[in-house]
Amino acid sequence: MSRIRSVATSALAVNRRTVLAATGAAAVSAGVGYALRPTDSQAATTGTGTAAQGAPVAQSRQAPAVPLAPYTRGTTVATVAAARTASGFRRLGDGPGWERVVRSELAAPKTGRAGRRTALAAFVQLTDLHLIDAQHPLRLEYLRSTDVHAWRPQEALTVHGAIALVERVNALRGGPVTGAPLHFAMTTGDNTDNNAKSELEWFLKVMSGGRITANTGDPRGYEGVQNSGLKQYWQPDTTVRDADKQRGFPHLDGFLAAAIRELNSPGLNLPWYSTVGNHDSMPLGCYASHGDSWLTEYAVGGKKLMSLPAAEAKKLQDAIKKAKDPRGVGFRDLLKAHTRDMRSVTPDELRAPFTPREYVRAHLDPAYRGLGPVGHGYSTANLDAGTQYYSFRIAEDVIGISLDTTDAGGHYEGSIGTAQMKWLDKTLKDNKDSYAVVFSHHTSKSMDNTRPDPARPGERRHNGAEVVALLGRHRNVLAWVNGHIHRNEITPHAVGNGRSFWEISTASHVDYPQLARVVELVDNKDGTISLFTTCVESSAPHRTDFADLSQTGLSALYRELSYNAPGGRTDLAGKKGDRNTELVLKKG
User: Fold this and answer.
1) 129-186 pLDDT tens trace
2) pLDDT, tens digit, for every residue of 415-465?
């Protein structure tokens, strides 16, 4: 793109871009279709607005005094967890790293580019953390009677794993290829698992720092499927010969008491932004049932269904998969029909679902500011407009755009409305002299749900192919970064007239291999751009010790349990070209 200014190679230039990311990572727009009012923009990003007087300005890391690039330590280029035992409950240890693959589907890489390139920006993507309130009455553990991987043995440790991931990001020395300072981290949705206020509080504390007790209901102990005595779930604290123990899962005295002990998160040591996913927007990630007083009462109440016959479980699972019950009417009726089969638990108001407005307002809460920016992308303009999409300045020559691809009409697949499509088109046009990175939860292939939004019943919904076509009309789009599918997958999009971009989908942090991804944008000074992607695991050691039930020990066990989860898929790491890569593009 000839109109875009090149990046100076001096340390001064890098530091200037760092400052821009910190004090000028300002909202370009916040989902109202037009630019923010100045006071909203300031309050949401720079700390100079009335609402943020006296608050610290977000600081991204300074450029290192000595060039660090390239480095591999702490990344999957150096080592990846791998099985060291071959049968039964497989124990993990250090395995060989994943090589970096150059992908040239969209442009031919030119020799000598490593000596010419300059960094445009670097950031970290976290996705599908699925912080789980494992004792929540609305959870669907009982689907395991028809589908063994419908419940995961590691689910009580999601907060432990997320904190360890934050610790890994904090230890990164910059971009692994360029050494450029990391400008920010972005979470691309499904930050929570069940649209519960308890999970939202845990997520915000994990990201911004604080003490967390991942326990609801009885403060004295765990109440859920893992101490139910039911053999279809791993019963770690008892001698019950459950189905998972028959597969080799260990007996661990004190596991559940350790899992609900207070934890401490240091919070990210760089600014972070948030993108919304379907599990953040709807109960169970699929039901458009906000305002249903009965489901809310069940969520916060004192009864929990823990088992269901396989035939009924399959009927419910099929209804969810095929979107036959997007408003959850049949689900509510099923729960009512099984009232006598429910077990007593301690009621807790923290398990109530949150609305989209409450989600945005929680991000704006000063208690969760961390290193900023205020609102983590969201602003008071989002509250005024009832939206959850925005754009922001990443660096002098790069903007970020966070989309809301959730469909409030119900179902776990996504789409976007006409108003957001027009806003996206206008934002890209208004910033045609800046490169653009687009973030969303859903992938282009998983945006096939065009059910009307109840709040905007007359508005048309648009699928992933339409979004790809829109992005392809703009020469400044470099990448679309997303999650949802829980799998590493990188897709080239060549849309004609020499316009192209890369779609980068990253594995979740709830299913193995539990990854995040560093993305570095560089100008090769030869008519091409390279996007370097590097996967990272959490800071937890690969090798576990069943006697170690500390915060660190449990975060390591979180990975090992996920590796051994019955029915777990073996393809979520993706192919070599979906992991550590150099993705080459022609300049627009």
Assistant:
1) 999 999 999 999 999 999 998 999 999 999 999 999 999 999 999 999 999 999 999 9
2) 999 999 999 999 999 999 999 999 999 999 999 999 988 889 999 999 999
Which residue in 213, 210, 116, 77 sits closest to 536, CA to CA? Answer: 77
Using alpha carbons only, give the angle 139, 132, 155 rounded to the nearest 5 degrees: 90
Low-confidence ranges of the chain (pLDDT < 50): 1-25, 32-59, 63-67
Length of the chain: 588
**Six-digit token pair at 228?**
């139910």
Dig out the tokens for 436 from the structure.
């653009």
Instruction: Give the span between the Cα atoms of 334 and 411, in whole angstroms.
Output: 18
Question: Helices then strands (H, E): number in the chain?
Answer: 16, 22
Q: Which helix (H) or strand (E) holds 219?
A: none
Contact 115, 69 (CB under 8 A): no
* Rounded Cα gap, residues 4 and 469, in angstroms: 23
Please say whether the beta carbons of 379 and 26 come within 8 A: no
> Quick one: which of 321, 406, 401 has its CA closest to 355?
406
Strand, helix or coil at 149? Answer: helix
pLDDT in tens, 253-292: 999 999 999 999 999 999 999 999 999 999 999 998 766 7
As given in the structure block, the two tokens for residue 166 are 């934050």
Whole-angstrom distance, CA of residue 294 vs CA of residue 429: 46
φ and ψ at 113, to 5 degrees? -65, -30
pTM exceeding 0.85: yes
Judge whether 392 and 21 are in contact, CB under 8 Å.
no
Question: CB of 467 within 8 A of CB of 445?
Answer: no
Candidates 537, 547, 558, 414; CA nearest to 95 is 537
Q: Determine how β-strand 581-586 pairs with β-strand 528-536.
A: antiparallel
Plot region of 118 (φ>0 → left; ψ -120 to 50 → alpha; else → beta): beta
